[in-house]
Structure formats: structure tokens, C-alpha cells
Design brief:
By secondary structure, the chain is α/β, with parallel strands linked by helices. It contains ten helices and 14 strands. α7 links the parallel β10 and β11.
Length: 324
């Protein structure tokens, strides 16, 4: 497999022009975030909740061109809520791996609004394990209403209002990053605003970050940076050495931020976790159509879409034989 250059100085205009001119931007890793820890079928019936539904959506996204699948487990006792239960994640991982042997499995440790800090990190104990796990680099406030879950879908309930903050400390993040590294996980660092670079630098200084590593910019959620070109450029300008970047834009900002990520040589995340709509007034019918669209846009812009094994190469993961 050919060597892929994964990082360069994104701030250097001459390097960018040379890479674009020669068609040398790296293959783009398309991550499909297929469900999430907040909304479920009450928001869009296409959001998968059971392990079997999650695996089915993962396969559809994989066949459409996603090389990485980001997963949140849901609580079998109440599908309207998330869970950190490692047995649930193990079941999901097993089904996804069976369906898509070479796809990069990315398990969330961000969880959802009902989990404690300890519960959010329980997916690290899932068997089989994920290839990649996420690490949110700081506290984040959120204020939102989860829609009523009507009769006709499992575990109906009324609307739920949240006004919350996910607390964390330097010490907790250093602890969990060290555990992730010791267990051989590739860590995806979730950066919501530039102040969280202080935390990433602390993790690097303490030896908990292995190069190459992915920084996932989360724009437009809660107290994250605004989903604007200016915000994204500012975050890119402060990337530490050895980092790649991927871009999330929430809601209507998914496509603009994804396209900017493509233009600038980064990677992208699409899916029902971040955006319930395919276009204005039209709910998405599944994750695959979002993957198909961003794949087409990338190819129209002369960006090759990474295969799962190209993504593995860029992330420093073992290559895996695909199913026949």
C-alpha cells in the first residue's frame, strides 16, 4: 500500500496550492455518525436504536463509502436513552465487524445527557473492542429539549428539557487518555473550541498522544465554536504538529462545514447524530444518503474518498482484509 502523507502545515498557502494543483490532497476519511446519544426515533424514524438496527445502518453507510462508523449504544430497557454498558457496545461492535470486516469502528465515550462520567467511559471495556474511541477535551454546556416520544415506538415519553454541563478535569482526561493509549486504542480528540487546545497540549506533554492523531472539530453544538468559516480557519491555524483534522457541522451547518473540510484538505463526518435532515424541509431517510452525497461532492472536487484500509493507514491502525 502506498504511503499517504497525512499531515502538513495547513497554514502554508504554498503547500496547499501545490497539493491542489498536483491533486495530492490525501484521501478523505468519511465518518458516519449513525445515531448519537441524544435524539432517537422520536426525532427521525431513520435513527437506529437497537444493536441490529445500528449494524444495518453501519453496513448501508459502509457500502455508500464511509470508512469509519461512529457509534453510540442505546439502553435496551429504554431505547429513548443512551447507555455506556460495555455489553451493549460489544454486541454492536460484533455485529458491525461481522457485516463490515475492514471498517474502522469508532465508539463514543461522550455518551449522552443521562450518563455519569464513569458510565461514559465504560465502552472502553467492550468486547470486541473498537478501533477508535473519542475523548471530549473539556466541559461543555447544553440547553435543549428532546421531543416527545409518541405512542407507536418503543418506550414512549413526554418531552424532556435539559440545561446541563458535562464536567471534566485535566486529571480525569489525562487518566482516561493514558488508559486508552495503554489498551491500544486510537484516540479521536473532540475539540469544541480553541480553549481546549490547552488540554490537548497537556495530554501531549504528558505522553498520552501518539502520532498521527485525529482532531475532530465539533462546530455549532452547545457552547462549541460557531459553525462559520472564520471559526474553522482559526481552529486549523492552531492545530499542533502531528495532527490531522476532521470537521463536524451540526444541523443545517453540516454541509457547509463538510465542504470546507474537503477544500482545506481535512476529513469529514456526516450522519444522523449531527443532522436529521437531508435538505431543508426533508428529513434524511438514513445515513447512507448523506455518505453518498459527500462522496460525490468530494470526487467532484478531485478528492479521493478513503477506503477503510486507507483510513486505517492514515490513523496508524492495522490493515484488515475486507469481505469477498
Amino acid at each position: 500500500m502506498l504511503e499517504i502523507e497525512t499531515q502538513w502545515d495547513y497554514r502554508d498557502p504554498y503547500v496547499w496550492m501545490e497539493k491542489v494543483g498536483r491533486g495530492q490532497l490525501p484521501p478523505v476519511i468519511v465518518t458516519a455518525a449513525i445515531n448519537g446519544g441524544f435524539h432517537g426515533k422520536e426525532a427521525n424514524d431513520a435513527v437506529p436504536e437497537t444493536p441490529e438496527e445500528i449494524a444495518q445502518e453501519a453496513l448501508a453507510a459502509y457500502e455508500a463509502g464511509a470508512s469509519q462508523i461512529h457509534i453510540h449504544g442505546r439502553d435496551p430497557k429504554d431505547w429513548s436513552q443512551c447507555t455506556g454498558d460495555p455489553d451493549v457496545y460489544g454486541r454492536i461492535n460484533s455485529l458491525v465487524r461481522e457485516a463490515c470486516p475492514d471498517v474502522v469502528i469508532n465508539n463514543s465515550t461522550g455518551g449522552g445527557p443521562t450518563l455519569t462520567t464513569e458510565e461514559r467511559y465504560c465502552p472502553l471495556d467492550a468486547v470486541p473492542a473498537a478501533d477508535v474511541v473519542t475523548l471530549n477535551l473539556g466541559p461543555a454546556m447544553s440547553k435543549f429539549v428532546m421531543a416527545e416520544r409518541p405512542e407507536g415506538i418503543p418506550h414512549p415519553r413526554g418531552p424532556l428539557e435539559f440545561d446541563m454541563c458535562d464536567p471534566t478535569t485535566y486529571g480525569e482526561l489525562n487518566h482516561y487518555a493514558s488508559v486508552m493509549k495503554e489498551r491500544g486504542f486510537n484516540i479521536e480528540f473532540e475539540v469544541y473550541n480553541s480553549g481546549q487546545y490547552w488540554v490537548l497540549r497537556d495530554l501531549i506533554d504528558n505522553g498520552h498522544v501518539k502520532e498521527p492523531f485525529m482532531v475532530q472539530f465539533v462546530l455549532g453544538a452547545g457552547t462549541a465554536a460557531y459553525p462559520t468559516p472564520t471559526s474553522l480557519m482559526a481552529l486549523i491555524n492552531e492545530l499542533p504538529n502531528g495532527a490531522m483534522f476532521s470537521v463536524i457541522g451540526t444541523g443545517v451547518f453540516q454541509m457547509p462545514m463538510n465542504v470546507m473540510g474537503l477544500v482545506l484538505g481535512g476529513h469529514v463526518r456526516v450522519g444522523l447524530e449531527d443532522n436529521l435532515y437531508f435538505r431543508k424541509g426533508q428529513k434524511a431517510g438514513g445515513n447512507a444518503e448523506m455518505v453518498t452525497r459527500i462522496k460525490r461532492i468530494a470526487e467532484d472536487m478531485n478528492r479521493e474518498v478513503a477506503t477503510p484500509n486507507q483510513a486505517r493507514q492514515m490513523l496508524g491502525l492495522p490493515v484488515v482484509e475486507a469481505a469477498n
